[in-house]
Write a structure and sequence with these properties.
By secondary structure, the protein is of the alpha/beta class. It contains 11 helices and 14 strands.
């Protein structure tokens, strides 16, 4: 499948004490929702902070929209106009009211629309009344602060959303709504908008994920369109008595009293001939967990 890339990065490196981010190449397809999947500490936030310009000290090169460099991002205001960013924690000043969030956002971004912002605040039910200009940021729950950030980026004219764990502080119903919001954002963009979000709770975001990038210990260990990954990997099940025959051929394997279940590459199925196993199509969650366990075990072993 041929695609344009909304973001390309090469030679991205960042070292901390006890951790190193090392990504030789990263490509995010344009027009899709891409999930950055990994356990806590895998490097997801570090990577997103680099791509968004929050973190400026790193090695490597980044290109946006097949046109702008990471230097352009810092020197040409139009580039940041096209990129929206959300993350858990304190983004807006705690003492600001929602009216001040609106006013400052309008000063910072030409493409910010007050009417759109206020409507999103109502639609996402932020705080007690949805839109209360006097509602203080510090009085909002973590989930409502995240919704406020989401409302802020959706009120702008952007082409790329970079979202660090957007579902993490949200309740189950709002996580489902977030998936709807992302899909609406992409659909309304008619192929010109893209979303790159991180998550360690894959199941919550699986139904909106088109492309997946799986990280483990600072490195990208797997990536691809979800449908392609579901062809590349299979879930294998069988009786417990056969587990030792197949264990070394699987990425992961869990065994109970009555049977085992694991994930392996589809191309390895011929090596399981005669083992009396059944094969199922995997979910993205099953693939992600198997790949992360496999590479984590390999790194430790």
């Amino acid at each position: 499948m041929e695609n344009n890339y909304v973001l390309e990065a090469r030679g991205i490196k960042k070292k901390y004490k006890g951790f190193a981010l090392d990504i030789p190449e990263l490509r995010i397809p344009g027009g899709f929702a891409t999930a950055l999947i990994g356990e806590n500490g895998a490097g997801k936030t570090t990577l997103l902070n680099i791509l968004s310009g929050i973190l400026l000290q790193y090695q490597g090169e980044i290109r946006y929209f097949d046109r702008y460099t990471d230097r352009d991002r810092e020197e040409i205001p139009d580039v940041k106009e096209l990129i929206g960013y959300t993350a858990p924690g304190s983004y807006y000043v705690a003492q600001w009211g929602m009216r001040e969030v609106e006013e400052i956002s309008e000063l910072l971004f030409r493409g910010f629309h007050r009417d759109r912002f206020e409507q999103w605040c109502r639609d996402l039910e932020i705080g007690a009344g949805g839109w209360d200009p006097k509602q203080k940021v510090h009085a909002l729950s973590d989930g409502n602060r995240m919704k406020l950030m989401i409302a802020g980026v959706l009120a702008r004219d952007t082409r790329l959303l970079l979202m660090d764990e957007p579902a993490s502080p949200l309740d189950p119903l709002m996580r489902d709504r977030l998936c709807e919001v992302i899909r609406e954002y992409l659909t309304e963009g008619d192929g010109q908008r893209s979303v790159f979000f991180s998550t360690h709770n894959v199941a919550d975001m699986e139904n909106v994920t088109d492309y997946a990038i799986i990280m483990e210990q600072g490195q990208v260990v797997e990536q691809g369109f979800v449908e392609d990954l579901k062809e590349k990997y299979v879930v294998v099940k069988g009786d417990a008595v056969n587990v030792e025959k197949v264990r070394d051929k699987l990425f992961t394997c869990s065994c109970g009293q009555y049977g085992f279940e694991g994930v392996c590459l589809a191309e390895m199925l011929d090596r399981l001939a005669g083992c009396d196993v059944s094969v199922e199509r995997p979910s993205l969650t099953q693939i992600s967990v198997a790949v992360m366990k496999h590479y984590s075990k390999a790194a430790k072993g």
